[in-house]
Amino acid sequence: MELSVLDIKGQDTGKKVALAETVFGIEPNQHVVYLDVKQYLANQRQGTHKSKERAEVSYSTRKIKRQKGTGGARAGSIKSPLFVGGGRVFGPRPRDYSFKLNKKVKVLARKSVLSTKAKANGISIVEDFTFEGPKTKQYLSFLSAFSLTNKKTLLILPNHDDNVFLSGRNIPKVNITTVDSVNTYDLINAEVLLISETAVSKLENLLNK
């Protein structure tokens, strides 16, 4: 598959980029995409949730009423979950939600999403560019030139560029990343992928190792 290279104003530069079939033309595997997204979201969880159970509630352990003769059920402790202020039954405890996923599975997941986006014409190749300084207005003009003002976009750069990152970080629905940091969740969450011309070959080399 060949795509035209567009400049920062959305105009065709006359150059073409051939996308590798091994990255942008495979048969998508939806299950590995699910696993990779699941792992990404699980890793975002702090797991610091905690509620007090009956052994941790600060109350007296005195038996609150006699065992027999009251006409009611037996009650041994005010800490019982049956009483207001008592401990919680099987409450949440701190835990680690992360789990292991093989590198080959994660690579296949990214290839699957890239292939799906390519088939749906959801990828645009942008000529390498930078800004003179961090200006949000410049990035908005860039999005406007591609008619992407109200769409979720992911810009993939070959390397970190402070001026570009700072220009787009406060704009809703805009995400900017580098080839080394791109993940399946960001790829699948974006409606349109904007890939820098140099980043294409770097991304293909990374996923074809």
UniProtKB/TrEMBL annotation:
SUPFAM superfamilies in UniProt: Ribosomal protein L4
Keywords assigned by UniProt, alphabetized: Ribonucleoprotein, Ribosomal protein, RNA-binding, rRNA-binding
InterPro entries in the cross-refs: Ribosomal_uL4 (IPR002136), Ribosomal_uL4-like (IPR013005), Ribosomal_uL4_dom_sf (IPR023574)
Gene Ontology MF term list: rRNA binding; structural constituent of ribosome
Region (Disordered): 45-76
Superkingdom of origin organism: Bacteria
Pfam families named in the record: Ribosomal_L4
GO BP of this protein: translation
GO CC terms: ribonucleoprotein complex; ribosome
Family: Belongs to the universal ribosomal protein uL4 family.
Assembly: Part of the 50S ribosomal subunit.
Reported function: Forms part of the polypeptide exit tunnel. One of the primary rRNA binding proteins, this protein initially binds near the 5'-end of the 23S rRNA. It is important during the early stages of 50S assembly. It makes multiple contacts with different domains of the 23S rRNA in the assembled 50S subunit and ribosome.
Protein name: Large ribosomal subunit protein uL4
Organism: Runella rosea
